[in-house]
Amino acid sequence: MKALTYRGPGRRLWAEVPDPAPTDPEDAIVRVDAATICGTDLHILHGDVPEVAEGRILGHEAVGTVVETGPGVRTVAAGDRVLVSCISACGRCASCREAAYGQCTGGGGWILGHLVDGTQAEFVRTPFADNSLHRLPAGITDEAALMLADILPTSFEVGVRNGRVGPGDTVVVVGAGPVGLATIATARLYSPARIIAVDLAESRRKAAGRAGADSALSPDDVERAAADGLGRDGRGADVAIEAVGLPETFELCTRLVRPGGRVANVGVHGRSATLHLEDLWIRNLTITTGLVDTSSTPLLLDMLAAGRLSTGDLVTHRFGLDEMQDGYDVFADPARTGALKVAFFRT
């Protein structure tokens, strides 16, 4: 089969690799019908994730069709159309029993495209298939379901749920890339009074408006607005959600929230951010971080099937699987291409 492999910092290759086969009774082999790229894949290519070995097949998001299962698999079978979750879960360890699948200590967690071969390929071996694959309703398209492999549950769990977004809140989402837009869409489920998106790029600010933001500002404009108060009674936002992964955007979030407010960090950081405790200690802030657990994926699938959740305009570019290299070039240069999510489909 063909797959996209990591060849060291700055190097990737679409080439022939051996077909995957079950190595554990709980494995399934899935034919990849649709896949996408995550910002984390770019971090790997930049050399920020040293655990990724040279030759690893990248990717942790896919929709596909089960073609083979190990003898221990009970809930999916050959022919089933499934969502491949970005998180694998053994289902037995203490973390999995608490539905903290991202922290699985039984061989799961974020392993696809990280510690084991991933989804940017024609076929993928999926460990712990019973807990890590989700059968898809017939009415959900591959493209719509693909957004639930990672960015929708990530934005919902690590951003909206950790940030305790509630009715009437003023919510600031810093970063209007794919995860930021998914955060806006899922924050709306909790009826906040106002959602403010912040991004440098005008095109992404416009995308935030289409996703449901009430206003979209540049970082300078939101700082000026904060001087007059973003929320009720001239105070700051109730919740600020960081969806970029840069020191300056994290620090901006801490400046935008009111005393007693919440900062939920979603972005993947490749370098240190300063925590200004000399200013923050007195403000009663709650700061949360997290890796997605995907415990919300069944709920989000139900809402998508019922028409209560839309993946909207998240996918901006579409390619065949064998155009993976072109897709990476587009995704890695959003200022030039306007890319949000790119999707690859079996042709």
From TrEMBL:
Can you tell which superkingdom this protein's organism belongs to? Bacteria
UniProt domain Enoyl reductase (ER): residue ranges: 10-344
- Establish whether keyword Oxidoreductase is in the entry: yes
Is ATP-binding one of the keywords UniProt gives this record?
Answer: no
One short Pfam name that applies is ADH_zinc_N
Q: Which cofactor does it need?
A: Zn(2+)
**Keyword field:** Metal-binding, Oxidoreductase, Zinc
Q: Which PANTHER family match?
A: NADP-DEPENDENT ISOPROPANOL DEHYDROGENASE, ZINC-TYPE ALCOHOL DEHYDROGENASE-LIKE
What is the similarity comment for this entry? Belongs to the zinc-containing alcohol dehydrogenase family.
Quote the protein name from its UniProt record.
Zinc-dependent alcohol dehydrogenase family protein
